[in-house]
Design goal:
The protein is α/β, with parallel strands linked by helices. It is about 30% helix and about 30% strand. It contains 7 helices and 10 strands. A 6-stranded mixed beta sheet has the order 6-7-8-3-9-10, sandwiched between helices. α6 links the parallel β7 and β8. α3 packs across α4, α3 runs parallel beside α5 and α5 runs parallel beside α6.
């Protein structure tokens, strides 16, 4: 069902540093509906990383409102925010952020443990997620035994294993070669086609072109918000269907 998953209303974020005040966001208003695939672009210092931190409930605005699935995030305490992040948000980083001395399977199980899922069910869910990204055969491998593309696929499995409403991806292809990057983007496309909302920060126009919509940020403001022309079918073992 369509409807707003994210609503930003005149969002401001100001950082006070010694001798200077930095306005990272300047009155940003933005609506992202359930099931959208949105790319956020902007130069260094534009405010896109600050916006991503707020969307991930890792930072709070100085002024304005952020509603996630109708919930005013500013009204939630720290314990509630931790629960909200675990239930509704999956995050994928450029640097993968896998636990180094822990197997791929155990890495994917981590958010399920925080959610209190019983051990047997955790294993089943993690194996299913690894299967979906083509990594079940590497379930016992440590991150150091995997290529960059393989590590990112494990990180994506970890991000969606709890079935979150929202997946945030911060430069997810930035550390990958073109082939691995394309494989990762196909996974995001397939997740989106199965109904998940995906928001991806990128500085690469060809990567942004894979999304349905591109939002441009400059000097803490939205300066462009455009639909992307997306052509062709997007198939994957995640069960992709033909693009609407």
């Amino acid at each position: 069902m369509r409807g707003p998953l994210i609503q930003l209303e005149r969002l401001e974020r100001t950082y006070t540093l010694p001798g200077i005040e930095v306005r990272a966001l300047r009155g940003v208003s933005l609506r992202i509906d359930r099931g959208e695939f949105v790319a956020i672009m902007g130069p260094s210092g534009s405010g896109k990383s600050t916006m991503m931190s707020i969307l991930g409930c890792l930072d709070a605005p100085t002024a304005g409102r952020f509603l996630l699935d109708g919930i005013d995030v500013s009204r939630i305490d720290e314990d509630g925010l931790a629960d909200l992040r675990n239930r509704k948000i999956g995050v994928v980083f450029q640097s993968f952020n896998l636990v180094p001395r822990t197997s791929a399977l155990a890495n994917v199980e981590l958010p399920l443990g925080y959610a209190g899922i019983p051990r047997k069910r955790r294993r089943e869910m993690a194996e299913s997620a690894l299967t979906a990204v083509g990594m079940l055969g590497h379930a016992r491998h440590l991150p150091s035994e995997l290529s960059g593309g393989q590590q990112q696929r494990v990180a994506i499995a970890r991000a969606f294993v709890t079935n979150p409403s929202l997946i945030l991806a911060d430069e997810p292809t930035g550390a990958l070669d073109s082939r691995s990057g394309d494989e990762v983007l196909r996974i995001f496309e397939a997740l989106n086609q199965r109904g998940r909302t995906v928001i991806m920060i990128t500085h690469e126009p060809p990567v942004a072109a894979r999304a349905d919509r591109t939002v441009q940020i400059a000097d803490g403001q939205v300066v462009a918000d455009e639909r992307t022309a997306v052509a062709g079918d997007r198939g994957s073992n995640l069960g992709a269907r033909k693009r609407r």
